[in-house]
UniProtKB/TrEMBL annotation:
Belongs to the aldo/keto reductase family. PANTHER family: 2,5-DIKETO-D-GLUCONIC ACID REDUCTASE, NADP-DEPENDENT OXIDOREDUCTASE DOMAIN-CONTAINING PROTEIN. It comes from the Bacteria. The record marks 63 as: Lowers pKa of active site Tyr. Residues 9-248 form the NADP-dependent oxidoreductase domain. InterPro entries: AKR, Aldo/ket_reductase_CS, NAD(P)_OxRdtase_dom_sf, NADP_OxRdtase_dom. This is Oxidoreductase. It comes from Hoyosella rhizosphaerae. The keyword NADP applies. Keywords: NADP, Oxidoreductase. The active site is at residue 39. Substrate binds at residue 97. One of its GO terms (molecular function) is oxidoreductase activity, acting on the CH-OH group of donors, NAD or NADP as acceptor.
Amino acid sequence: MELPSIGFGLYKVPADQTFDVVTSGIEAGYQLIDGGAFYGNERELGEAVRESGRRDELLVASKFWGDPVQTYDQVLADFDQTERDLGIGPVDFYLIHWPRPTRNQFVDVWRAFIRLQEEGRVRSIGVANFGAAELGRLMDETGVTPALNQVESHPWLPQHELRAFHAEHDIVTQAWSPLGRGRLLDEPTLISIADRHAVSVAQVVLRWHIQIGGAAVPKSVHIQRLRENRDVDRFHLDEEDMARIGALESGVRTGSSPADKQ
């Protein structure tokens, strides 16, 4: 399966806006829609995909939340609900939303994911917010490598070491909060680079994600920004641009840390 470099996410998109946002995203040419049971808008996502008449052209992702219960059986029960809510046939990507390592259940959860894939209910399986040690356990104890790991990543938090581990094991790095929840849009260095290329700051950051070999799922409820976020192939960041962006690394997170989700 090929994964588009840029998709769009539905975290914190109100249910009553989701149908219109997804419809606009599909009309703008997106092929990847990143959802999750925790977002509370899977029914509206599924309805928009069905109404588009373009299901075969689209990739839809969902996630297992795992709280308060994170077990093999809970995965199957939660996926049953996701399957009903979406109503689109096999789900293209299903991810473990958080490893919650202190519970020591994520390997059994992964075995349930493997079952869902073997049964043809999920096309590709992956994880989110996993570290290298947790990824290693999945691979060592089940023999199955996640297709992707979705983690917070942006110029303040590039995650170089984790990206290197992913590259070694053919795991795609997919960024959530790729624009630092909008906080990066006021970064003077990025504004300067954007002005130089006559593009937006968001386009610069998303182009950076692509050029370091990753993928990203930015979120917007505005059609013009959805279109803009996808239009990142008409310019290239040179070595000086990339070095200036690289110097912004600070380790700052704009969302939850995996350590916060136990």
